[in-house]
């Protein structure tokens, strides 16, 4: 095979918006059914495989490192729901998890031993059996009925996130005849388990309808339809199992409806009509509702509302400029608030026995904590998930009576991992406008500095990339790398204003913040050559910083990257369009938004400068960021830019999250990490 990269044919397509005429030579790659498109993607894969062929041994080494550090036969901490303890386990050599349960015998979780099934264990779903020989497999929904006798679950075998819903009788073990194709994630049972509510999507991949399905019937009823293309809908059952909640939300506005779960054929009651810019959510707390909302409270406040008048809100936790309220969980005897302050997450407890509210403290300088696995409404313990950049994912029970934090399980890291061998800390870069931008950093102690660095970023949708542990990352740290996360504006790390300052007509702050972080790491003597990495909207960040400051980076890894942002947001028929106008602006109808997006959209701004090597990874069946975006971007880089090489790797049978099996995912990560190591000459 030739060592020359594939050259995409040019088929000029001219478009005009707001008086601006541009020519797109690679728009033809949008056609997934065109044999030329598939041939081009396969040629790109072959070229990437050839160019990275010298890394095969390193890829295998890194894969084996990930595998050898992972306890392949493992299990989760059981969570109680009703009369059962629920857990999942993995087995060595098997790609997917196995969902199980055992009957409750006492208040304490059963003691599990990896690889040893408990007496009386009932297997609910075995992902390996369900997947069969399929190259891709994912579960979208797994919901137990309130009485514990039925299971609703959905499966996807292509990666397009359109699932088929099925039902299982857990008493007999038999699969029911009911089968519903084309459903979205999630769903909720009625209180008596006779009825299941689910959502479906429209042609733009927007969940817009809620259906009611009565078991044994094929006459499903639409109970809610959302016609505003900016809004997604979903349905859930409160922890108390008393109320069904239908939520409709755009990027900036919410609307909630509620129904007694004992009356599944009844009419949903509107809590408050939508008002642009007002977001709210509802939970049931016994004799009242809890409402988390941002009406007159940019960082949100918590209110109570009467059961018979849920639209009347009385403040319980008032707004604070320094604290972003993220979520609220209602229990019989207490309320749990998940919040963010000073760039870190936290937990606040509001007892309902008259004791003063308080917060749980944690010793590490940077970490992430959140409620997790709390299915029971009446409980004296709170289940928490905790991690940091040096602490593996940990599960705690917090005793609400004694205030004791009880470690139930910490994810095993084999091979002699010792967190004391590593250090984590936070740095602060200064952005172009003077804003201080936090950076979370981890490095192996004794690493010579400045060191090669992998700098990760996202910066959209108020999504926070909190400090987290990664087994795969150890393969970099143990080879003398620094790993850092740039908490750029557009994310939510520093509160709602941090998000507002990195969206719409302030989107460029996201990109300049990332460059400022890279320059800070070098100026402080921590980093030498920096590889940038990001995915999805973080892939947009990667494309933008490659245009903005290509000289700062020794390489760029862009995964399922949103790099053709302007053309996508101009097309209302695509998934990332109408619902995204609140995030990016509406370039179709607003000439100022068009001009602003054109000024930063990566595909539109490739020029003749020298770019660093770029690796773009995508999936053919991705329904969120379509494969053609990185394919077009790489083609334009090859045509116009100097430097490189510019590589495209397309998973031909996967979706937005890449390959589904854990061993396959480890191999994909080993591929990316070996490329990153090669960029800085660390191949041993």
UniProtKB/TrEMBL annotation:
Stretches assigned to the Peptidase S9A N-terminal domain: 5-410
Span-the-membrane segments of this chain are none
- Every copy of the Peptidase S9 prolyl oligopeptidase catalytic domain together lies at 468-680
Enumerate the InterPro entries for this protein.
AB_hydrolase_fold, Pept_S9A_N, Peptidase_S9_cat, Peptidase_S9A, Serine_Peptidase_S9A
| Pfam families named among the record's database cross-references | Peptidase_S9 (PF00326), Peptidase_S9_N (PF02897)
What keywords appear on the UniProt entry? Hydrolase, Protease, Serine protease
What's one GO MF term for it?
serine-type endopeptidase activity
Task: Show the Gene3D superfamilies listed in the entry.
Answer: alpha/beta hydrolase, Prolyl oligopeptidase, N-terminal domain
The Gene Ontology biological process annotation of the record reads:
proteolysis
Q: Which domain of life is it from?
A: Bacteria
Please report which protein family the annotation says this sequence is part of: Belongs to the peptidase S9A family.
Protein name as annotated? Protease
